[in-house]
Amino acid sequence: MTVLINASPTNGLQMTSDGSGIVKLQSNSVTTNALAWVNFVGSTAVKNASYNVSSVTRSSTGTYAVNFSTAMTDANYAAVYTAAYAGTGSGPLTQIVSQTTSVLTVSVATTAAFIDPAINNVAIFGN
User: How far is 92 from 100, CA to CA, in rounded Å?
Assistant: First the structure.
């Protein structure tokens, strides 16, 4: 269940729940914690650690679908994607390709080609 703890200057501390299993901390109705995050290996899409991410799928070199265990409320969340690159030249250039309530698609490349970095990190923030 989602347990929502909201600190409001007018209503004090409020707690509600909806049954989805997500904990949300809010201040004045703005969520202040990550709703999902994952650290994964690029070449295999194997998760090293995660929260609210059921799987990561590698669709092609440098392109990944991050699948949420529990869908986001809407597709207007903020996604942050970083990748570690140890090669030569410029990079990595990370990009949000598309986002829905259940899947975030990201890609990463150098100026020359798509790559599969050893370390990839995605974090999702929203309400």
Answer: 24
Find out whether 5 and 13 touch, Cβ atoms under 8 Å: yes
Q: Which residues constitute the domain of residue 18?
A: 1-33
Phi, psi (deg, nearest 5) at residue 90: -80, 145
What are 24-61's pLDDT values in tens digits?
666 666 666 788 999 999 999 999 999 999 999 999 99
Measured distance CA(12)–CA(30) in Å, rounded = 14
Residue 91 sits at φ, ψ, to 5 deg, of: 150, 175
pTM: 0.78
Number of domains, the chain? 2
Q: Are residues 69 and 105 in the same domain?
A: yes
